[in-house]
## 1
Amino acid sequence: MAKSSLSQYRAKRDFASTGEPRGGARRKRRRGKLRFVVQEHDASSLHYDFRLEMDGVLKSWAVPKGPSTDPRQRRLAVRTEDHPLDYAQFEGVIPEDQYGAGSVIVWDAGTYRLRGDDAKKKTPEQELRAGHLSIWLDGEKLRGGYALQRIAKGGKGEQERWLLIKVDDDEADARRRPVSTQPESVLSGRTVEEVEEQEREQKSDGGERRSRRRRK
Ligand code: MN
């Protein structure tokens, strides 16, 4: 791959302004388990960014309603640009003048693998290209089988559209609503609102300190 798959990610952001990671060189495939992360992102419209480690980066989808544990719910997932692996730990506020301005928390995190026989025959990269991923999640909130199915190819500025659907297995639960009942970060216990408030307080504290210093 001549061009980094992170070039789109970097072109959209000014790393002097945003606290998001720039990401290093694309890493070689790590041994062991592949990571997944779901970030709640309170941008111009609230959504959940679903990311799977693949090929040294995080393949990403924006899920407006967030993942469901109910197999009857088909959640739209719009493919977005690859993110660096470091992004899996990012929480904070993306500044007003930046792409994706708003508050971000790590809503869920863990590892994933391909399900069943697929794991022996295919790689996640192959399934991604074919437009159908059949995965098993081991997260704190999300567990069990999930399917990601491409329903519309991108191109000409259009993003790929996929559906994220819970597989009807022992981990399925139509009554659970983790998106609304478990809003806290699995990293810090904070909600997106709390992250935003803390950032605002820190900024105003810093402002006061600076003006006090000036008065001396
Ligand atoms: Mn987002």
## 2
Amino acid sequence: MTRVIVHDDPESAAAAAAELLAGRIALRLRSAGVAHVALAGGTTPRRVYERIGPLVPEWDAVHLWLGDERVVPAEHPDANVAMVRASLLRGLAPPPVLHPVQTGLGADGACDAYEAALAALVPRHASGMPQLDIALLGLGEDGHTASLFPNAPALNVTGRACVVVRDAPKPPPVRITLTLPVLGAARERIVLATGREKAMAAARAVGAPTPEVPASLLPRLHTTFVLDAAAAAFVDAGADDA
Ligand code: 6PG
């Protein structure tokens, strides 16, 4: 059963997601001494990244990955890593270990390099996939998550932790995304969505799994949706009202 937590507004939802993410990171740091975390891109999680700094005791044992990246120069305003640097990393000392997608290598080169880095640094899941500790994910209005878009061939990729997307309906079109096998292998997933424009996608994401709604293909177990009331408008009353 997917866990759904609903907060009144975007700010409280972001604060809750920051506390949940920080708590999971702290747990892994205590039990394993290291934490591997995939971060969401887009705009919603920025509020989380601006809050979470003081909530984690020792960032220098935290490895930060990107759940997806646009294939643009690292300092480009569309780059997810630029948003992470400007929000989460800002003033953080000692900083976490950030693993940007090396988009300067071009899409295929960047994907292969990212795949190799994940394989080299992240412990393996029984499936053979790198096992991230936590994946923080966003949700698009069409139900996409990371850069896994509705009915896209990327949804069927197995045996790879990341894949190139060349026709993303959400610009920019060329992206690198983690795949469902590696997102599914993560110990924990947190999906943060706010705003009425996400309400239909959120309701379908917690409903029956379908490639029309990629977020619905995430495992139900150890997946928590953190929503504000607007994004939860069509989610069944079973949600935990926070
Ligand atoms: C990206 C994101 C993408 C995002 C959703 C929601 O690179 O675009 O990873 O999956 O999370 O599109 O975006 P917003 O938070 O901006 O609504």
## 3
Amino acid sequence: MDDRTFRNGMGKFATGITVLTTEIDGQVHGMTANAFMSVSLNPKLIVVSIDERAKMNQLISSSGQFAVSVLSESQKQMSMYFAGQFAGNHDVDFISFNGMPVLENALLHLTCTVYNKHVAGDHTLFIGEVTHLRTKEGTPLVYHEGKYKTTAELN
Ligand code: FAD
């Protein structure tokens, strides 16, 4: 099958949207990712899949830690921004959670240390051990068939 057929098929699986963050020498880097899932309860593990070409791949390998912000439906602009879809650099106000930068108003904040990583084709699976977690009420931003949707639009 060609890449488009594969992408279209995978797009049938509706996901939430996260912004991953890490920090090295006081420099924060963020990146949009929807390849995120819970993996294990004991220990508490999650996984994210990051393209080998993304700067984030090397940065998480170096820092050994990252944070996850699960976006609410009001944060579409943040998702587009951290996917590099707006020109130029904007100032983003990160807040600190357990010493890691995260996005304000997200529904879930996680901080993780890298537990393991596996190269899988042109991506790397970073398995993170969750060190801290906090949640906030709200409805999630949804990504389905290559489009952002609100939960109301899925009905
Ligand atoms: P860059 O492209 O350099 O950075 C991303 C953007 O964030 C740039 O605009 C940059 O200026 C800005 N930025 C970063 N840090 C800061 C900061 N501290 N202050 C201000 N601005 C900052 N790719 C994957 O590998 N895995 C996925 O699961 C995945 N899911 C995606 C889901 C969606 C819905 C979309 C739209 C894209 C997804 N991508 C995914 C693609 C990925 O988000 C982009 O390829 C991204 O540009 C790669 O980021 P990068 O680390 O190379 O950094």
